[in-house]
Design goal:
With 326 residues, the protein is α/β, with parallel strands linked by helices. The chain is built from 8 helices and 15 strands. The relative contact order is 0.18.
Length: 326
């Protein structure tokens, strides 16, 4: 961020801050029972995955979001944010190369709630201004949550734009694997060679015995294919699969949910597609704490994006104890 503009913001009366809200780098997940309809079996069943030769060419796509409170005007936060998305293509030589990418630099606040001098400084920022509703900043905690939601929305839009651009350019044998939901885009949900890989499980689609069956899948197995309901914006087919044994760890350890287009061909090749995704575990995505659910090529894309995050948005190392004025 240009230091001159930040100095102008402080000179206008804003109080400088340096606070990375908890959970800033990632997307939130809904906690709900969304519902599902059976597609492959009358009730959710457990099926083995089969080994499958990896596609010759695959694009892997991921996105990131970072935000940080840089100042307060009274109790109204001024939030600096960075969102980015990229696709990395792996060809026959097995090397990943960047195929597409985009980023946005944002300034998020409730413009109408700022005092006139601070508002003028904010509107003069070189960053893209995202204006929050005044009602969203009545309380600081609510304001931070509204800002996080605005940043997440910007990230989802950017990921979708990059993914749809890549999907339109795929040849007849090339696949696209996205870290996240296909069901947020009609283009992606209908694509015959696109998969969405979801590694968080705040939204549940089953209850009772079927929920237990889904969450206790043995390693190397998948659930039968189902149609998610409630949360999906566009219709997809889905299944759960286990990458690593969960016994001795946690119910969600090594558990993925996969989305694909709603078509009979998805059901026919679900076990082979699951086998392909299981092969993408190697090499391990260490030292990432999510390595048990994070496919290595997705980790590679995320690492590529993180290396390009503006340094001022990363948490400062060391203590937040007060520093004596010199």
């Amino acid at each position: 961020m240009p230091e001159r503009w930040l100095s102008a913001l402080v000179a206008a009366g804003a109080v400088p801050a340096s606070h990375v809200p908890q959970g800033s780098p990632g997307r939130a997940d809904l906690e709900e029972v969304a519902g599902a309809e059976p597609v492959e079996d009358a009730i959710l069943a457990v099926r083995p995955v089969t080994s499958e030769e990896l596609p010759a060419t695959v694009c892997f796509l991921d996105g990131i979001q970072y935000h940080k409170v840089i100042a307060y005007d009274g109790v109204v936060p001024v939030v600096r944010a960075h969102v980015a998305a990229a696709a990395r293509r792996r060809g026959r030589d097995r090397r990943l190369r960047t195929a597409a990418g985009a980023s946005r630099e944002l300034l998020v606040t409730a413009v109408a709630a700022l005092r006139p001098p601070v508002r003028e400084a904010v509107e003069g920022s070189p960053l893209e201004l995202v204006d929050l509703a005044t009602a969203d900043v009545a309380q600081p905690a609510r304001a931070l949550e509204a800002a996080r939601g605005a940043v997440e929305h910007a990230r989802v839009e950017l990921e979708r734009a990059v993914a749809e651009g890549i999907a339109a350019s795929l040849d007849a044998t090339e696949w696209l694997v996205i870290d996240g939901l296909l069901s947020e885009s009609a283009v992606l949900a209908e694509h015959p060679r696109a998969l969405g890989v979801i590694k968080s499980h705040g939204a549940q689609y089953f209850t009772g015995a079927e929920l237990e069956r889904a969450l206790t899948l043995p390693a190397g197995h998948r659930s039968s294919v189902f149609r998610p309901r409630g949360r999906a914006r566009h219709e997809v087919y889905s299944w759960y699969q286990r990458l690593w044994p969960w016994e001795g760890n946690d119910l969600l350890y090594g558990l993925l949910r996969v989305e694909a287009r709603p078509h009979p061909a998805t059901v026919e090749r679900a076990s082979r597609l699951a086998g392909w995704l299981a092969a993408e575990r190697a090499p391990l995505s260490l030292p990432d704490a999510r390595w048990d659910r994070l496919l290595y090529p997705i980790w590679d894309v995320e690492s590529y994006l993180k290396a390009r995050v503006p340094r001022d948005l990363l948490p400062a190392p060391g203590s937040r104890l007060p520093v004596a004025a010199s």
